[in-house]
Every structure is written in structure tokens, then in C-alpha cells.
Amino acid sequence: MSEKDIFVLGIETSCDETAAAIVKNGREIVANVVASQMESHQRFGGVVPEIASRHHVEQITLVLEETMKQANMDVSEIDAIAVTEGPGLVGALLIGVNAAKALAFAHRIPLVGVHHIAGHIYANQLVQDMKFPLLALVVSGGHTELIYMKEHGVFEVIGETRDDAAGEAYDKVARALQLPYPGGPHIDRLAKQGKPTIDLPRAWLEEGSYDFSFSGLKSAVINTLHNAKQRGETILPEDMAASFQTSVVEVLVGKTIQAAAHYDVKQILLAGGVAANEGLRTQLQKQVEQLPEVELVIPPLSLCTDNAAMIAAAGTVLFQQGKRATMALNANPSLLL
């Protein structure tokens, strides 16, 4: 690291969290502010893009001001501004991108566009230094991916979901069990009280594939509940939650361990909103213990869900690599890693 500390302001508005953070040297959080909209979307049972965008418009200035205040810094002390350019909801992304461009233009600060998933992976660097080659398991509402990294900023997607992301399956199964949105935490909590007694499918796909598929599992849960109801039988919600979670976790962990051995990695990183799932964390820890040479890094719960510290951490690496965005930077809802 050069003698001068690098301070990067991160901005994240890809879905329903308006977030800003300042990170020092890509590793140390100076300030981290997140304004959640969960309550607004709860009554709709999911995120409503139009409502999300309006909330970002209302919150972005306040969140940025609060971040600078927490850090006790002036904008002139910021070395770069990193912003999520995609993927995500286009209207939501635009608010963050335009706020970042306005600040960068007004204060003549370099601007860096960050991929949302790269951010989730780099949340781990706020906990522990990355050791290459590594494997990241990214599990969230919109993504389920296995990503191999040989060095900083280079991502190779070796496995991804062919249909529903794991988090999406959690939300849909939660709805079938009449649990509130977001479903993940509720199923995780309920699963601890039940037993995985219901036989549900596990999609391993073809030999040697690291891809995932959760659509069939979700349908199997819905059909099992529906058939039981028609026959007048009762299925305990906690047993269904435990059975569903066991099926998801077994495949996620199984494929991750297979890939880690095949690619001979030094580290496994867990990333994304579903990384907060206790069942997944516990199982992954157990299995990684069988690989003595591999270190497992799991970020704290506050860094699993969307936040801007992770965007600033990923942005610092890009900034140090000399990557810059111009004022033509735009929101890209389907940005590839």
C-alpha cells in the first residue's frame, strides 16, 4: 500500500436499500449507512420497482450526508467514488449512478463503476485478506453463482442458476407457507424447529456441472403442500421448512466443495444475502473442515445484505488498477461479471 491512505466513497442502490459508505484502503470501514425500505415492500410480498426508485430519490442525499458526518470527513478528502452500475432494477440503479456522477463532476473526483456481485465478493475483504486462487459462492435473491478468482478483479463464473436463484426459491416457498416477506430469515428460523422428514428433490444436474436449479424443488414444495391439503392431511410448516432448507443447502455446499477440490483453491468465500442463512453457514463450515488446506471466510450479517461498504471495497481495487468511468456511465440492469 502506498504511503497515502486511499478513501473511497461507495454508493449502492441496486434494489431496495439506499446505501453509502466510506472505506479506507479497501479494507477498513470508516462509515457505513443503509436506509432499508423493507417495510414499504412487505405488504406487497416483494420489491415493487417503482416504489423502490421513489424511496431512493428521497433517501440518497440524506444517506450521503449522514455518511460524511459519520466519517467526519469532507468530500475533498475522498479519492474516488465507486457506484453500483448493475445488475439490478434499472430505475433504482439510475438514482445511485446519477448521484455518483453529480458528486464526481462537481468535486472533480475519479468515478468507478462496480458490478453488484463483485461487491458482494469483496465484502469478505473487509473481514480477511483474499488468498488466490479462491472460490466465491454467491447466494442472494437474484443470484446463485460459483465464481473462481485467480487474482484481484478477475472473475470466472464456473456455475450459475439455470432458473430460480436460491433466495427467490426461499421467498416463493415462504409465500406458500404463508410466512412474511422476505422469506429467507423466516424459513431459516422455522427450519431449526422442524425435522427434514419430507422427501424433496435435489437437482445435481449432469456430471461435472457446477450449475444450480431450484425451480423443481420450489414446485415440489408447492405440490406437496397442495396435495396434502386436498387429502385433508397436515404438514407441519417447520418440517417443510427444514426439508426445503436441507435440500437447498446440500446442493449449494456439495457443489462448492466439489469445485473447491477441483480448482485447488486456498479460500472459499461466502457472499450475498442468503449468506446470512444459519443453516448454510453451519453446513459449509462443517464441510470445509474436511479440506485442511482451505480457509473459509464468511462476512458478518451486516455485510451479507446489500450495503455500500462492499461496493467501496471492490471499487478500491478497480481504482488502484487504474480503471475509471466517464460521465457516460449508465445503469446496466443486466451487466455481466
Short description:
The protein has helices at 38-42, 49-71, 90-107, 116-122, 166-176, 183-191, 215-230, 237-263, 278-288, 301-304, 309-320; strands spanning 7-12, 17-24, 28-36, 80-86, 111-115, 134-139, 144-149, 156-160, 267-271, 295-297.
The low-confidence parts are: none
Count of domains: 2
Broad CATH class of the largest domain: Alpha Beta
The CATH homologous superfamily of the largest domain is termed ATPase, nucleotide binding domain
Strand tally is 10
- Main-sheet strand order equals 3-2-1-4-5
Mean pLDDT: 95
Q: Quick one: overall form?
A: globular
- Reading the helices and strands in chain order gives EEEHHEHEHEEEHHHHEHEHH
Largest β-sheet summary: 5 strands, mixed
CATH fold type of the largest domain: Nucleotidyltransferase, domain 5
Radius of gyration: 20 Å
Enumerate how many helices there are, as a single number. Answer: 11
Class of secondary structure makeup: alpha/beta
| Strand residues, percent | 15-25%
The N- and C-terminal alpha carbons lie at a distance of 26 Å
Helix content: 40-55%
Q: What CATH architecture of the largest domain do you see? A: 2-Layer Sandwich
Domain Gcp-like: 28-312
GO cellular component, one term: cytoplasm
GO biological process, one term: tRNA threonylcarbamoyladenosine modification
Subcellular location: Cytoplasm
Structural description of this entry:
The chain is of the alpha/beta class and 337 residues long. The chain has two domains: 7-122 and 304-320, Nucleotidyltransferase, domain 5, CATH 3.30.420; 129-298, 2-Layer Sandwich (Nucleotidyltransferase, domain 5), CATH 3.30.420. The chain is 42% helix and 18% strand. It has helices at residues 38-42, 49-71, 90-107, 116-122, 166-176, 183-191, 215-230, 237-263, 278-288, 301-304, 309-320; strands at residues 7-12, 17-24, 28-36, 80-86, 111-115, 134-139, 144-149, 156-160, 267-271, 295-297. A hairpin with a 4-residue loop joins strand 6 and strand 7 (144-149). The two termini are 26 Å apart. The relative contact order is 0.19.
